Amino acid sequence: MSAPSEETIRWLVEQSMLQQARRGAVAYSGQGRMWRHPYAEAQPRAAAAKASVWFSAYPASVITRPGDSVLAALGDPALWQAFAAIGIQALHTGPMKRAGGVTGRELTPTVDGHFDRIGLEIDPAFGTADEYAAMSRNAAANDGVVIDDIVPGHTGKGPDFRLAEMGYADYPGLYHMVEIAEADWDLLPDVPQGKDSANLSPEAEDALHACGYIVGRLSRVIFYEPGIKETNWSATRSVEGVDGVQRRWVYLHYFKEGQPTLNWLDPTFAAPRLVIGDALHSLDTLGAGILRLDANGFLGVEARAGGPAWSEGHPLSITANQLIAGLVRKAGGFTFQELNLTVDDIAAMSQGGADLSYDFITRPAYHHALVTGDVEFLRLMLHTMHAYDIDPASLIHALQNHDELTLELVHFWTLHKDDEITYQGRTWTGGELRESIRSLMYERLTGAHAPHNLRFVTNGVACTTAGMIAAALGIGDVWNLTPEEAEQIRRAHLLLAMYNALQPGVFALSGWDLVGALPLPRAAVEELMADGDTRWINRGAYDLMGVNPSAPASAAGLPKAPALYGSLVEQLQQPDSFAVQLQRLLRMRAQYRLYAARQTAVPQTASKGLLVMAHELPDGLGRQATALNFGAQPVNEVVDLGWTPRATTIDMLNGQEDGTVTATGGVPVRLESYSGKSLLLRE
After folding, report:
1. pLDDT at residue 246, rounded to an integer
2. Each residue of 113-161: pLDDT tens digit?
3. Cα separation, 391 vs 117, whole angstroms
4. What sign does the dihedral 475-481-484-490 (CA atoms) show?
């Protein structure tokens, strides 16, 4: 083989994200715009005030008008008018930049739903940069904002990775990749025909670690299961460099083989330059106002004696996130993080880091509450959140997203596995509690009880919100629901919306939630699941505006999901539809600025299914309590909140008197099964 031509190198450099980032930085360097916004501290309440109700899209699932792009659909003025009518203030597009890989000059498809980015330009599969900018303008015209994704931890195998393989300039410094001396190539696996890399066995990892090449096995990775190993380290084929030398490399990936991880502490600092350039491009060129930091807890790796390498929650992750978030605030934007780690890590990384965090603290717990009809675990996690001084206003309380329903319960898996915890009248270790919760949830949400849902490796359950609810309610045949069963699902769906919306912070929901999507039959996405990624069953296509009702699939080829509620156009004409009831809820939430409230108490209750969260509303608007019944039986009890004796409580959703506070400050709470209310104290 001959060394790559100058023309090939030049083309790869021009296409690379690192080169594009260099060009974008010029717009800021030496300019006064760098000093117009505070940036040192996280600003969660300012971020929530900018937009407190978010719609999370998944581009590959969007059904469009015939001939329209996904971006044209998401920028449709009619859609933004519907969002405004419901109370949705922001659109999180999901990853839309070019992703996948490149072989020679041939682009290869994404291996992880466009989270394997290889360029800063919009992927033509979704539309154009002009259409993205038009979407941002339509959002602004409806007092909305567009939210983009950046991926600080990895890329795809695009031009940047190919240049790194060739040993060109500072590109090898982008990645956790190590050149292996030819004398040690016998320690590396053969690369199968048609592949460009091969995953290392645990034994090969150990051998390379013993030789001083790599840190070895990692403490935690994703997409790893005994017998299905696709994580940790992979070896490249022999690649001829720009200097004519043949090299084999070993590179790290926390996720799939096609997602090499970025090295944030390489002396070239190439990785930070690439990621910051990506962020500035989203803000300046595309018009986004908020950025999601994907998998941002995996930005540092370090060897540890006597065990696997430190690979999550590393202090470098904290530093790197502070750098990204600070610079985004300098540019006038905000960030939020996808951080499924311990509560300790979430608290630490929020100090000067991302402005908002996904609520991985209580999300699996509220699912557990619905499945069991018992809120004790949910209340425990809310108390844990407060114990670490995490303000619920700094969290994004979400329904479905593109990932699985997580059951990792990382807090009790790692740092706190040996902690003693009182739960259900006995003492558990954190590890014991985790296994008990996981076992019950897997039993109730998958298998014979719920064949429509699937396990996703060791992480959790692939399902839609409606599919999870059906399983929780004991409904097994979701594709042949009776009207009564469909109504039961909708009722519980609204309950979960109330839990997430009627507390401080951001409320997020998806297209799958708005249309009441059910999981796809596994046969419909069997090919996509060939690598063990079962999440494709919860990513069915949806037609939000009813613009193409006969379409069997999205433009990306995802089959249309069975849906219980219909399009937004249909729902907004039905007085009791899911969307209209959500509209009433969000109007009340906005009126009382509940997103900006301060949570003051999560009291004990007599009823197993009753959860109460008490808040101080902002601007002297008074005291409020969210009361939710996760159980199948009605509740009727008095909850001690210390409110003004003999004062009146108002049901905020209908404006009617609900009860009278007792002489000792107790608040009467009466709820039917799977229902909730928001109570205002009228003194």
Report:
1. 96
2. 889 999 999 999 999 999 998 999 999 999 999 999 999 999 999 999 9
3. 32
4. positive
pLDDT at 529: 93
d(CA 94, CA 71): 11
Say if residue 36 is in the same domain as residue 51: no
The pairing of strands 290-293 and 246-253 is unpaired
Residue 616 sits in a domain whose CATH number is 2.60.40.1180
- Both 91 and 144 in one domain: the answer is yes
Q: What tens digit of pLDDT does each residue of 605-642 get? A: 999 999 999 999 999 999 999 999 999 999 999 999 99
My answer on whether 194 and 310 are in the same domain is no
Whether residues 519 and 538 fall in one domain:
yes
Single out the residue in 544, 565, 590 at which a domain terminates: 590
Statement: residue 223 has pLDDT above 70 = no
Where is 512: in which H helix or E strand? helix 511-515
**CATH code at position 53:** 3.20.20.80
Examine the pLDDT at 468 and tell me if it is beyond 60.
yes
* Side-chain-facing half-sphere of 511: CA atoms under 13 Å: 28
Assess whether 87 and 121 both reside in one domain.
Answer: yes
pLDDT of 1 > 60? The answer is no
In a domain, 453, yes or no: no
Bridging pattern class, strands 117-122 and 97-99: antiparallel
Dist. CA 398–CA 358, nearest whole Å = 8
**Mean pLDDT value across residues 188-207:** 94
Query: Nearest-CA neighbor of 517 among 51, 56, 52?
Result: 56
544 to each of 65, 76, 517, how far by Cα in Å? Answer: 11, 11, 11
Phi-psi region of 624 (alpha: psi -120 to 50; beta: other; left: phi over 0): beta
Q: How far from chain centre, in Å, is Cα 171?
A: 29
> Is 496 in the same domain as 619?
no
**Token digits of residue 400:** 């479905």
Among the three residues 253, 282, 317, which one is the final residue of a domain in this structure?
A: 253
Q: Is the pLDDT of residue 350 over 90?
A: no
Parallel, antiparallel, or unpaired for β 53-56 and 90-92? parallel
Indicate if 115 and 90 belong to the same structural domain: yes
In the chain, the number of structural domains is 3
Q: Would you say 511 and 55 are in contact if contact means Cβ atoms under 8 Å apart?
A: yes
pTM of the model: 0.91
Q: Is residue 626 part of a domain?
A: yes
User: Which of 137, 308, 328 shows the shortest CA–CA distance to 224?
Assistant: 308
> Strands 623-629, 635-640: parallel, antiparallel or unpaired by DSSP?
unpaired
Residue 178 domain-assigned? yes
Phi, psi of 86 (to 5 degrees): -75, -35
Q: How confident is the model at residue 28 (pLDDT cuts 50, 70, 90)?
A: confident
C-alpha–C-alpha distance, residues 45 and 313, integer Å: 24
Give the span between the Cα atoms of 153 and 130, in whole angstroms. Answer: 28
Token pair 């839990």 is found at 499
Closest by CA position to 87, among listed 405, 508, 445, 518: 508
* Residue 334 lies in domain: 44-152+269-360+388-406+482-590
Q: Where are the alpha helices (DSSP H) in 16-128?
A: 17-25, 44-50, 70-74, 77-86
Q: HSE on the CB side for 377, CA within 13 Å?
A: 26
**Would 370 be classed as within a structural domain?**
no
Given a contact cutoff of 8 angstroms between Cβ atoms, the answer to whether 626 and 503 are in contact is yes
d(CA 269, CA 25): 14
* Nearest partner of 538 among 569, 563, 512, 564, judged by Cα: 512
Q: What percent of the chain has pLDDT over 90?
A: 85
Is the same domain home to 104 and 129? yes
